[in-house]
Amino acid sequence: MIKHEIAVIPGDGIGNEVVPAALNVLNAAAEVHGGLSFKFTEFPWNCDYYLKHGMMMPEDGLRTLQSFEAVFLGAVGDPAKVPDHISLWGLLIKIRREFEQVINIRPAKYIQGIVSPLVNPNDFDLIVVRENSEGEYSEVGGRIHKGEDQMAIQNAIFTRKGTERAIRYAFELAAKRRGHLTSATKSNGIFHSMPFWDDVFKEVSQDYPDTRTASYHIDALAAFFVTRPQIFDVIVASNLFGDILTDIGAAIMGSIGIAPAANINLNGKFPSMFEPVHGSAPDICGKGIANPIGQIWTAKMMLDHLGHQELGQQVLDAMEATIFSGIKTPDIGGKASTQEMTDDICSRLKK
Ligand code: GGG
């Protein structure tokens, strides 16, 4: 019997609705497998925790998480309680950084049964590899002066190591897929870091002569995501560009509630973390209508990471069959609740 020990952080808002849904699916998947079980240990770290303790997680929180094989996270942020930059840097970004989760993988693909807002919803299937440890997500800088002299300085960090690591990872992934890699740049407007990014991309590309490459400025690339996403296979992007592009990826699939993500630690020293692209959605929290697909697809990515690719594929198939059958939450045109959608996925898995 294989037993996986998973740390679970539902976090804020709908994280507390979609995480239990995805855990039900993982338990159903384990049942189908027969020789697999999960031990989920839940941690109540969120904005309410911050209001009580003045921090998003305890001092020894990272040490506690380190003993688990993976972290399964819902959503972080409740701006009515805690400013977003405090909650994000106190939990999500802290875990990504300290656990050296340097790569963020975010797939997007056309799903039959979901009405895409695209004018011409062609079949598309792409993966964004987002640099996850540096770039524009930086605490380097400061705010000085008062009144009309007020000033904020924000420095982005692009190291050779971090940039090359993300680009190389994306080339390796493209080689396993359709052999096409697109780089997101903005070297006409951002004077230092983006020409540097382009140079590293060009240099690394020499090691992958069979991979076809393209490079687009992020503004044009964002437009192409909407007008012709089918031209893309793997896209490599900096931290901020990757974050923005993947919200567009979610939008063209039909809902921000669908998109999954994996924060990968490459050296095996720390657990990787699995969390959907969406946030805590305070506007729909408590209504029982949050789309569980983003979290369930994220669970599928965790299964892949733990070595259960076949089972992961079964989860994806069940999920797609449920959507195709019309059992859908309101954000994708249905009337089903979070629970109804989850129950249907579990029963299809067990068939
Ligand atoms: N699902 C995790 C979550 O709450 N994400 C919200 C967010 O703003 N994330 C920013 C990021 O991924 O960098």
TrEMBL record:
Keywords: Manganese, Metal-binding, NAD, Oxidoreductase
Superkingdom as given in the UniProt entry: Bacteria
InterPro entries, A to Z: ICDH/IPMDH, IsoCit/isopropylmalate_DH_CS, IsoPropMal-DH-like_dom, TTC_DH
Gene Ontology MF terms: D-malate dehydrogenase (decarboxylating) (NAD+) activity; magnesium ion binding; NAD binding
NCBIfam families the record matches: PRK08194.1, TTC
UniProt family annotation: Belongs to the isocitrate and isopropylmalate dehydrogenases family.
Protein name (record): D-malate dehydrogenase (decarboxylating)
